[in-house]
Protein backbone atom coordinates (compact mmCIF):
# COMPACT_ATOMS: atom_id res chain seq x y z
CA UNK A 1 0.00 0.00 0.00
CA UNK A 2 1.34 3.36 -1.02
CA UNK A 3 0.74 6.33 1.18
CA UNK A 4 0.65 9.77 -0.28
CA UNK A 5 1.83 12.58 1.81
CA UNK A 6 0.51 15.97 1.05
CA UNK A 7 2.98 18.74 1.05
CA UNK A 8 1.31 21.33 3.14
CA UNK A 9 2.84 24.73 3.09
CA UNK A 10 2.72 26.44 6.40
CA UNK A 11 1.62 30.04 6.10
CA UNK A 12 2.50 32.42 8.86
CA UNK A 13 -0.22 34.31 10.67
CA UNK A 14 0.79 37.75 9.27
CA UNK A 15 0.66 36.29 5.72
CA UNK A 16 -2.81 34.85 6.38
CA UNK A 17 -4.01 38.21 7.65
CA UNK A 18 -2.55 39.93 4.58
CA UNK A 19 -4.24 37.43 2.23
CA UNK A 20 -7.55 37.88 4.04
CA UNK A 21 -7.17 41.66 3.87
CA UNK A 22 -6.44 41.56 0.13
CA UNK A 23 -9.40 39.24 -0.44
CA UNK A 24 -11.72 41.60 1.47
CA UNK A 25 -10.41 44.56 -0.55
CA UNK A 26 -11.15 42.70 -3.81
CA UNK A 27 -14.65 41.88 -2.53
CA UNK A 28 -15.24 45.56 -1.69
CA UNK A 29 -14.10 46.63 -5.17
CA UNK A 30 -16.39 44.03 -6.78
CA UNK A 31 -19.26 45.16 -4.57
CA UNK A 32 -18.78 48.80 -5.63
CA UNK A 33 -18.66 47.77 -9.30
CA UNK A 34 -21.86 45.77 -8.87
CA UNK A 35 -23.57 48.69 -7.11
CA UNK A 36 -22.64 51.00 -10.00
CA UNK A 37 -23.89 48.49 -12.55
CA UNK A 38 -27.16 48.08 -10.62
CA UNK A 39 -27.60 51.86 -10.47
CA UNK A 40 -26.94 52.13 -14.21
CA UNK A 41 -29.38 49.33 -15.08
CA UNK A 42 -32.08 50.74 -12.80
CA UNK A 43 -31.72 54.13 -14.48
CA UNK A 44 -32.11 52.53 -17.92
CA UNK A 45 -35.19 50.68 -16.69
CA UNK A 46 -36.62 53.91 -15.24
CA UNK A 47 -36.03 55.77 -18.52
CA UNK A 48 -37.74 52.99 -20.50
CA UNK A 49 -40.75 53.11 -18.18
CA UNK A 50 -40.95 56.89 -18.53
CA UNK A 51 -40.82 56.64 -22.30
CA UNK A 52 -43.57 54.02 -22.32
CA UNK A 53 -45.72 55.97 -19.91
CA UNK A 54 -45.09 59.28 -21.62
CA UNK A 55 -45.42 58.29 -25.23
CA UNK A 56 -46.86 61.35 -26.96
CA UNK A 57 -50.54 61.64 -27.73
CA UNK A 58 -52.26 64.05 -30.04
CA UNK A 59 -55.88 65.10 -30.40
CA UNK A 60 -57.14 67.21 -33.30
CA UNK A 61 -60.56 68.81 -33.41
CA UNK A 62 -62.02 71.09 -36.06
CA UNK A 63 -65.06 73.23 -35.44
CA UNK A 64 -65.88 75.45 -38.37
CA UNK A 65 -62.81 77.49 -39.24
CA UNK A 66 -61.08 76.70 -35.93
CA UNK A 67 -58.63 73.84 -35.57
CA UNK A 68 -57.54 72.84 -32.08
CA UNK A 69 -54.50 70.59 -31.58
CA UNK A 70 -53.78 69.16 -28.14
CA UNK A 71 -50.41 67.49 -27.74
CA UNK A 72 -49.55 65.55 -24.57
CA UNK A 73 -45.86 64.70 -24.07
CA UNK A 74 -43.31 63.90 -21.43
CA UNK A 75 -40.72 66.41 -20.33
CA UNK A 76 -38.14 64.91 -22.70
CA UNK A 77 -40.29 65.45 -25.83
CA UNK A 78 -40.44 69.23 -26.07
CA UNK A 79 -39.24 69.24 -29.69
CA UNK A 80 -42.55 67.65 -30.76
CA UNK A 81 -44.28 70.97 -30.15
CA UNK A 82 -41.89 72.65 -32.59
CA UNK A 83 -42.41 69.90 -35.16
CA UNK A 84 -46.19 70.14 -34.77
CA UNK A 85 -46.09 73.90 -35.36
CA UNK A 86 -43.81 73.38 -38.37
CA UNK A 87 -46.28 70.91 -39.92
CA UNK A 88 -49.22 73.24 -39.26
CA UNK A 89 -47.34 76.11 -40.93
CA UNK A 90 -46.51 73.90 -43.92
CA UNK A 91 -50.21 73.07 -44.24
CA UNK A 92 -51.06 76.78 -44.41
CA UNK A 93 -53.05 77.20 -41.21
CA UNK A 94 -52.69 80.37 -39.14
CA UNK A 95 -51.70 79.73 -35.54
CA UNK A 96 -53.67 82.05 -33.31
CA UNK A 97 -52.47 80.84 -29.92
CA UNK A 98 -50.07 78.22 -28.59
CA UNK A 99 -49.60 77.45 -24.92
CA UNK A 100 -48.50 74.70 -22.59
CA UNK A 101 -48.91 73.56 -19.02
CA UNK A 102 -46.57 71.26 -17.08
CA UNK A 103 -48.07 68.85 -14.57
CA UNK A 104 -45.37 66.78 -12.82
CA UNK A 105 -43.63 64.97 -15.72
CA UNK A 106 -46.35 65.55 -18.33
CA UNK A 107 -46.63 68.55 -20.65
CA UNK A 108 -49.99 69.57 -22.16
CA UNK A 109 -49.62 71.68 -25.30
CA UNK A 110 -52.57 73.47 -26.83
CA UNK A 111 -52.49 75.05 -30.29
CA UNK A 112 -55.44 77.02 -31.67
CA UNK A 113 -55.44 77.60 -35.40
CA UNK A 114 -57.54 79.43 -37.93
CA UNK A 115 -58.10 77.78 -41.29
CA UNK A 116 -58.86 79.67 -44.50
CA UNK A 117 -62.05 77.79 -45.28
CA UNK A 118 -63.90 74.77 -44.00
CA UNK A 119 -62.34 71.70 -45.46
CA UNK A 120 -62.43 67.99 -44.85
CA UNK A 121 -59.66 66.44 -46.91
CA UNK A 122 -56.96 68.87 -45.82
CA UNK A 123 -57.95 68.45 -42.16
CA UNK A 124 -57.56 64.68 -42.53
CA UNK A 125 -54.17 65.19 -44.17
CA UNK A 126 -53.00 67.38 -41.27
CA UNK A 127 -54.22 64.78 -38.79
CA UNK A 128 -52.43 62.05 -40.74
CA UNK A 129 -49.14 63.97 -40.80
CA UNK A 130 -49.32 64.78 -37.08
CA UNK A 131 -50.24 61.21 -36.17
CA UNK A 132 -47.31 59.97 -38.27
CA UNK A 133 -45.01 62.35 -36.40
CA UNK A 134 -46.20 60.91 -33.06
CA UNK A 135 -45.88 57.34 -34.33
CA UNK A 136 -42.37 57.89 -35.70
CA UNK A 137 -41.29 59.35 -32.40
Features:
alpha+beta; single chain; 50% helix; 4-stranded antiparallel β-sheet; 137 residues; rod-shaped; 4 strands
Question: Could you characterize what this model shows?
Answer:
The protein is of the alpha+beta class and 137 residues long. 50% of the residues lie in helices and 26% in strands. Strands 1-2-4-3 form a four-stranded antiparallel beta sheet. Helix 2 runs antiparallel to helix 3. The termini are far apart.
Compressed to H and E, one letter per element, the order equals HEEHEEH
Structure summary, number of beta strands = 4
- What is the CA-based Rg, rounded? 32 Å
- Give start-end ranges of low-pLDDT stretches: none
Proportion of residues in β-strands: 25-35%
Instruction: Give the distance, in angstroms, between the N- and C-terminal Cα atoms.
Output: 79 Å
Amount of helix: 40-55%
* Average of per-residue pLDDT values: 83
- Secondary structure category: alpha+beta
Describe the secondary structure blueprint for this structure.
Layout: H1 13-53, E1 57-63, E2 66-74, H2 79-90, E3 94-103, E4 106-114, H3 121-136
Antiparallel strand pairs: 1-2, 2-4, 3-4
Helix pairs in contact: 2-3
Amino acid sequence: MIKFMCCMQVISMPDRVEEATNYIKKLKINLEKMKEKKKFLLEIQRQKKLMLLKSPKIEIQQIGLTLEVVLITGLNSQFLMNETIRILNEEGVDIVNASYKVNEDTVFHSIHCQVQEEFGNESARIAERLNKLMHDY
